[in-house]
Amino acid sequence: MAMIRVEGLRKTYGDFPAVVGSDFEVETGEIFGVVGPNGAGKTTTLKMLAGLVEPTSGTAEVAGRDAGDPEMRRNLGFLPEESPLYEDMTPRSYLQFFADLYDVPREAATERTESTLDRLELEHRERRLGDMSKGMKRKVAIARSLVNDPDLLIYDEPASGLDPLTTNYVLEFTRELADQGKTVLFSAHNLYHVESVCDRVVIMNRGEIIARGTVPEIRAAHGSTDYHVFTTVSVDGATPDRRSESGAERYRTVVPDMDAVEAVREQATAAGGEVVDIRTREQSLEDIFLDLARETPPAAAEGQGREPKASGTRARAESDGRAPSDVDADAIQTDPEGGRRQ
Amino acid sequence: MTRSLRERVAAVVRIARWEVERSAGIVDRRTAVLGVLALVLAGTILGAGAFAGGVALDRDIYRVGVDQDSPYREPVERSVALDARPPDPDALRDGDVDVLVREGQFRAADTPKGRAALSELRSAVRAYNVGLMRSQENGSAAFPVVVVLQYVSRSAGIPDAAVADDDGGSGSGIGSGADGGAGGATDGAETGSDGTTDDEETAASTGSGGPLGVPALSGINPLGGGSSGSPAEIQPPFPFGSLVLAFAFLVPMNFVVQAYGSTMLNERINRRGELLLVAPISPGDIVAGKTLPYLAAMLALTALVALGVGGSVVAVAAVIPIALVFLAATFAGAMFARSFKELTFVTVTVSVFLTAYTFVPAIFANVTPIALISPLTVVVRDLQPLESVTPGAFLFATGPFVLCAGVLFLLGVGIYREEDLFTQRPVPLKFLDALDAQVSRPRDVAVLSGLSIPFVFVAELLAIAVLFALPVSLTVPLLLVVVALVEELAKSLHVYAVFESDTFPRTRRVALVLGALSGLGFFVGEKFTAVAQVVGLPELALGQAAFAPSGIGVFSAAGLLFAPLVLHVVTAGLTALGARRDVRWYAAAFVGSVLVHTAYNLTVVSRLG
């Protein structure tokens, strides 16, 4: 059963299109990733689903109700990218206040708050939030998103700005929530995070969805497998391979398919050499994303790249202030560990 | 929203409780204790001062050498400024005393202070003698001539002057026989004034019910330089005491709105309020919940002040609309401001404007019905025992304030949403956003024009109050221009806002439809200004000039009933045509509309004579 159903969802600010006709469904109990660079429309999409931003056109349904319906919001846990807390409150009073707002009975709220804080290993529960570290504040924010025991969680960049240890903790916790049957809509521009926790993914760029599916499906549809052919003699396009285990001289040629592998073999044989090894390497989601982003035609979104009107009344940038930018490697965070999953 | 009223009230109460807890949490215990101590200390000092007869900065500044047996000894001892010393001639020479009284002779040091001391002694003796005469059982023997003053409204055509209705004339010579050895310090002119004061004092003292009472200062014009020489020069009554006490109602509001503005803007800083917007409550609930504690604080302070100065429930009820406007204007300001710096500017502007708007007309509480444009006038009248406030006058004074507050809250709540709350734009553009947020269908333009009426009403009343003192021949044309300006602005600003945000297509047809709707909405709303009649404002020349062109008070002229509709539709259509293009065209069309409107106003007023 679909927890979220989005059809033709569109949001424009003045003549600036932030989201251009999105369609997707999220199944109950799924972790669904929304991926894209700054200004891709991820946050606007999430905020439309949370009922914070009114769509210009299209429909967004959550559990059969219109997004923004108060009853829908009662069953929603939202974690914005920036979640400034009321710094003069303590974690307990802060969580209790939100539990009250969601009509959670006092006893149940206390029990839920304490157990969530236990699971998040958050100590100092009577310390002022203003005196806490960013990681601790993020944990409180996550606890706040769970205080009403929602079926749907919308997490916008949940690990943004956190150290690797806390990041891993948050990602594992997100996985645990899905295991409990909760649906998680997860936005990130760190693709490693997405690959590690998301069941399915949509890739957004310039306000539109440019790829969708599970990571293997996206890889199959949009990625490619490279063939690394190692020969004892140099052939066209070969580079010396310095990682030969035996120490013998050999060369590496990267080709896209088996026909090309066969051509390399013929060249090597003709030169008096031979093929000693063939290996395959799949593209990472990040590589695929970069390729797709480069391929996105500028006409995909009308008026894209234009800054919103500086004056006038309602034309404004995406609510988080991010105007669309050209996609480049700097816009994508890489794995904080420095590696890519092969 | 399908939530029940009970759920909404519960949500508002929760947020209000949280706001109180948070606000209390921000002030640490030590600061709170110090604050309470400071308040107690200030109260103690003021109380002690009041108990000791008031704060006297001139206590014992003049030293008078006078014998124990001298008849001047008692007047000197009773005077706050005089200090009785032994009558030693050497002391005068050495500068130890300023005035020496010996054997009925007065010698003052030949210094400015000596002369001032002598003058003060003269006043003290005079006051002592008047007191003696008042204590006499036979009042007519003590004051053989009585002057009764009766003030009448300027609009009734009777010139401003005191009416002396007895044979006493100016009252000269009243004090001549009552000096009692005071050294001839009294003259006729002074007693004329005294008589007036006496009369007013009697009136005021009979009803000052509060613990502090109303100082019996009515009839004295402290700005007029003191006593007047003849009854013809006596100034109209100036309710100084009541005004001072009425001002006490305004003072706490200025502090409360500072805290209120801060808490509202705080929700906008770093997107802090975003999570409240995701909760299953409406923006209206959030705003109501956050406003409630501050409104309650204002009510509590108002009740305390009323208790202190002897104001009745009427005074409290008249102050509540002022409190609402203070809060509403501050809330709107907090929604428009980009930073605390801008908010400070907004709140100070709100405080100064509202204080001036409410306080200045109240000065004329006893003079003209125009004073009723301020609810504070109701408070001043309430504090004066012989004045009464009719329900109509109360409605006239407070109604526009309540409506203005409602509209300001409505505008602010309209942009209490994610898309507007966290964007940083100049205040004027935010204001246009707030107007635009109220319009989703063409008919909303008519509603918004109607909702502008309280502001138009207040602005026009303010113009009347400002121009009131000038000659009618000059102010009537001036007022007609101001009225046209205000009304054309009210009809066109939101139309400009919706075109600027592209809420509707910028076609000529749409502009004409929106203009017509705006004119219609304004026309309908304008009819509610008929409330002006309840206080007789149209009877004034300026009141007639301001309201007659709208058909108020002249319903018998059938043509004038619908002529304003044609006028409003035409001029609003004209500005809408300009607004659909750009700001320059809008400005040009606006000027044209004002000219047409002014010409219409002049025609109507001249026809009515």
Explain what the structure shows.
The complex is a heterodimer of chains A (342) and B (609). Chain A has 342 residues and is an alpha/beta fold. Among the domains of chain A are: 145 residues, Rossmann fold (3-Layer(aba) Sandwich); 58 residues, no CATH class. Helix content of chain A is 31%, strand content 25%. Chain A contains ten helices and 14 strands. In chain A, the strands form three sheets. Chain A has a six-stranded mixed sheet, with helices on both faces. The longest helix of chain A is centred in the middle third of the chain and has 16 residues. Chain A is elongated. The two termini of chain A are 33 Å apart. Chain B has 609 residues and is mostly helical. Among the domains of chain B are: 75 residues, no CATH class; 199 residues, no CATH class; 142 residues, no CATH class. In chain B, 63% of the residues lie in helices and 3% in strands. Chain B has 23 helices and four strands. In chain B, strands 2-1-3-4 form a four-stranded mixed sheet. The two termini of chain B are 55 Å apart. About 13% of the residues of chain B have low confidence. Chains A and B meet through α2 and α3 of A and α1, α9 and α16 of B.
Q: Find the structural class of chain B using helix and strand composition.
A: mainly alpha
User: Largest sheet of chain A, if any?
Assistant: 6 strands, mixed
Trace the largest sheet of chain A across and list its strands.
6-7-8-3-9-10
What is the percentage of strand-forming residues of chain A?
25-35%
Give the CA-CA distance, first to last residue of chain A: 33 Å
Backbone shape of chain B: globular
Q: Based on DSSP secondary structure assignment, what is the total number of beta strands of chain B?
A: 4
Mean pLDDT of chain A: 79
The end-to-end distance of chain B, rounded to whole angstroms, is 55 Å
- Sheet with most strands of chain B: 4 strands, mixed
Mean pLDDT across residues of chain B: 77
Question: What is the number of strand segments of chain A?
Answer: 14
User: Can you identify the CATH superfamily of the domain at 2-75 and 150-220 in chain A?
Assistant: P-loop containing nucleotide triphosphate hydrolases
Low-confidence stretches of chain A: 299-342
Cα-atom Rg of chain A, whole angstroms?
24 Å
